[in-house]
Amino acid sequence: MSESPRRRIYLDYNATCPLADPVREAIQAAAEGPFGNPSSTHWAGQEARAALTEARRQLALLLGATEQEIVFTSGGSEANNFAIKGIFWRAAQRFRHPHFVTSAIEHPAVHAPLGFLQRLGAEVTFVPVDRFGQVDPDDVRRALRPQTVLVTIMHANNEVGTLQPIAEIARICREHDVCFHTDAAQSVGKTTVDVARLGCDLLSLAGHKFYAPKGVGALYVREGVELEPLVHGAGHERGRRAGTENLLLDVALGAAAELARTDPAEAHLKSLADRLLERLHELLDDAVVLNGHPTERIPNTVNVSFLGVSGRELLERVPDVAASTGSACHERGGAVSHVLAAMGLDRARQLGAVRLSVGRMTTQDEVDEAAELLATAYRHLTGRSTESVSV
């Protein structure tokens, strides 16, 4: 008799998510439905325009925005680049060296465009974070200059999940008449993201982080904020992003937004993440240490250090558990996380870090089994007893 296949457990939802059923259904309906160019005035174009308008409405409702404030993009990276470079090109007309403020733990999709702009004359201040990965709003206040044109601080960190005091930072920016952008790729769909409550002028999101396909995202642009487009051409997206709209992906993003708004998963995610952390502590006691803020973090993320071992080597011992040691965008590079380094963690905690992120499709049984597998692998690596603790 052949052995039954081993169960694979996916705990890397911060890297990407599978398609949700309503999203898949929306894609199918769009593929079989309107095919015209949304800019065309005839019946085929207007059917496509109606589908695009509905997707924009769904996303606007999720964010507490208006439809006119939503710009569809190819993903979170483009949205970040659009926000940062769009402000720079506008500001370059007024300042020789436009100044930006950001944090030490931003995603490469923020740090890299800022590095590019530095080569063009921009100046950038990187504010630090504390041991939980949080920015002090007063550090942002102190970093502001007369030529500061943008502050960009992520809503939730992609590695440790820590939430930033965005509303307070946004208030400081308003007081100084400085535009404020937040990268919300990791928070949209996991916790409440309301642009009015956050007080941001610009907000980026990525569809594949909340069950839409890869290759689609959006930038919220508060009414009155002017950006120079990244892509010039015809007047699509109210002149802010040229190119015929990708109806299939935009409709999928709208369906994902509707799912997040009407069927929020925050309580489910928190329950599973809390259980996962509890089981790891029960199995390995103080050999496991939480990284990030204990309470102010997105509900699905558990970043822990397995003391005395390499997180990368630990995950190699559990090939049926899909997890990561940091951001998937630089996972293959092998470098120690810049986020954990900025938090001041010692070398052992940095090397032993593993990011475990649950999602809508995760079950309690999967969480329990993953904890068992990780604990057993840890015992093998450290030479401890390999006896399994019962679930």
Notes on the protein architecture:
The protein is an alpha/beta fold and 391 residues long. The chain has two domains: 129 residues, Aspartate Aminotransferase, domain 1 (Alpha-Beta Complex); 242 residues, Type I PLP-dependent aspartate aminotransferase-like (Major domain) (Aspartate Aminotransferase, domain 2, 3-Layer(aba) Sandwich), CATH 3.40.640. Helices cover 40% and strands 14% of the residues. Strands 2-8-7-6-5-3-4 form a seven-stranded mixed beta sheet, with helices on both faces. A three-stranded antiparallel beta sheet has the order 9-10-12. α1 runs antiparallel to α9, α2 runs parallel beside α9 and α5 runs parallel beside α6. The longest helix has 21 residues. The two termini are 28 Å apart.
Kindly summarize this structure in a few lines:
The chain is an alpha/beta fold.
Features:
single chain; 391 residues; alpha/beta; Aspartate Aminotransferase, domain 1; Aspartate Aminotransferase, domain 2; 2 domains; seven-stranded mixed sheet; three-stranded antiparallel sheet; 12 strands; globular; disordered C terminus
